[in-house]
Amino acid sequence: MPEPCQFISGKLPRCSIVRPTATRGAGAVATIHGFNQDGLFIGHGKEFIEVLFSLAAAADRAKRER
To answer: Reduced to 3 states, what is the DSSP secondary structure of residue 3?
Structure first.
């Protein structure tokens, strides 16, 4: 259903968008977790995985400046 999307740009016309309605199970940590479960990082050391999850957690905590 078309709605104004002020968080994207107030200059855009009414448009339909696809976006999550909840962040549970979404975000950087969830993405890295999924990649890890899929075996994307096989062969990488434990330290690499820990750093990757740390960066993902920081990304999930980040807030956009206005």
So the answer is: strand
